[in-house]
Amino acid sequence: MSVLTNFITHTLHGVQYGFILFLIASGLTIILGILDVLNLAHGELYALGAYVASSVLGYVVGLVPPPTDAASQAVFVAVVLGGAVLTAAVLVPVGAAIESVLLRPIYDRNEVYQLVLTFALLLIIKDAIKFGWGPTPVRLQSVYSGINGIPAASLVGLNYPTYNLVIIAVGAVVVVGLFYFFNRTKTGRIIRATAIDREMATAIGVSTDRTFTLVFAVGAFFAGFAGAMALPPTNATLEMGANPLVLSFVVIVIGGLGSLRGAFVAALVVGILSKWATWQYPPAELAAPFAIMAVILLVKPDGLFGTWGEMDA
Amino acid sequence: MRNRLPGLVSRDGERKVRVMRGLELTLRQTALALVGLLFLFALPDIARLSPTIQLSVLHQGVVFGLAAVGLNLLVRHTQLVSFGHAAFFGTGAYTTALLAAKYNVTEFALLLIAGMLLATLMAMLIGYLSLRHTGLYFSLLTLAFGQLLYALVQGQAFFGSSDGLPVRPGPNMRPDIFGLALPPDAYEVLMYYLTVVLVVVSLLVMWRLINSPFGAALDAIGQDRTRAQFIGIPVRRYVWLAFVVSAVYGGMAGALYAMVQQHVRPGPVLYFLRSGDILFMAILGGYQTLLGPLVGGIVLVLLQDMGRDLTNYFDALTGLVLLALVFGFPQGIVGSLKKGGRVRNAASSFKDDPAVIGSWLSSFTESLVTAASRSVQNVKVLVFGVK
Q1: ipTM > 0.95?
Q2: Could A115 and B279 be called an inter-chain contact, meaning their C-beta atoms sit closer than 8 Å?
């Protein structure tokens, strides 16, 4: 492999990693921007998504024949994506229940209680997963190899897994969809209005109750979706929630608190730069995102973009 | 020289025991404090009698409680919730371990002081970078810096990577206490007594600190930063100072931890869940009190240890306790037991009229039903729209 193809492969890895990070951080950042809640259990929702996906995807993939020709490959991809959306839909009631039953009574209390509460949820969800799926890691190799059977990257002479291309494509669709939702649809505008001024929104007839439940459910949806998309290339383990959680904090801090656009840019920056760093100097893998964060904060203390507001979405 | 030494004094017709300048306890409080001290000092003997309680676990609880006492200075007075306190705990622990493992430093006091010193330097740096922000942003930043340290230590062979470093210097394979090379049993017990002494001194220092003009200024900053700035308090400098002081406590606890466990790994001392643990110890014990964090530390460590023996799902057990804490006893253990606290009030109204239990139950179910119906209503509107 020449240096150029190496470079392209690692950049693509970075982009794919960035999109996964964005999927997780997007849920976290809209919850943070609108509810002012730092949801420590978000990583566990992502892990729960991966575990639910192992069951759901395992089932739906069994319904279709293994992909051989172009038509059956298309069907296979569609089924997998449908399964991922179905998985994420399972997380919606979970998120709605957490918000409306547990979080709602403590909004007006000191914020340390939100941290304690979401941390308690982190521990409980983790053990719930252990109870449901057992302590051994769960795999879903058939989906990964099935989709990788489609020769997409090799068309241009690259040795790159097709599944990662699917993640990039899906991530791009989600990004466009989220920006459309928050800029163009009525519900999205209502949510942003609530974020900008809670009292004013209430005064003109927006129910903050419902907005909050909706936002948390959407956040849980994206966490679950990210989990489902991230499962096939690796295993789902009980510890898988912690790292993405911390990395999405980094993404949020770099992007600017509560800014969706910031989260997107930051996720790509962190994804690509940390994959480059890993390529050039492997031990840097763990520290690279934090080092990037420290540098960006020294230059721009408020992150790349401002906060969730009129000019931003 | 009267009123200079500890002794009995009379204040507003009440007899009080004078501990040091400004610190006077009622007789009841003195008795409680003495019982508490006696209990702490008798723990090694109690642990010897009972097979289920291990001194090392209790010792660990006291050590983490000390870190939580330090963190509480920030949380209680400046209202800044640091989520990266493991960084200082870990700095203390790793400084001790490095000196012991790589440079063969054997003296207990040297190791302890070095740990505290390095933690101070680390806090000066991290504090300078993260105290520009408040609220959740501050929590996030401290968390991220803590994770940066974790990642650095995990990735470097010099720090022993994920295997960590042993704290077994010298021919005796353990630190000397003031020049004395002790056998394992004596070392364990003496370390415990030293820890208790250090904790008591630290508590007294903390008490002096929060009852000084500096402590009052921190309270003012916690209530309203802008106002504090206007009345001439150097907010940035004071908050930074408080951050460093709280880190010194963390560093001391970390150094003690390293010498007690005699092995340091990045997971138990630097990982962000450890930061969470330290914070929750403070809240569990009652973060509006001085002693609360210490009690919370002992209780949480014991709870985690017993839960591990009891069930496979000990994490969820801790989670449920924390949930009960948030909804039932937001003032924490010590806060609820204090005068005017929840448990005291409930006990006194129960004494007046035992039938009060009925009204507690009905108000509890009522609030559950209201919350449930409200969320059902909301979900209905979300799904079907407003009709």
Answers
A1: no
A2: yes
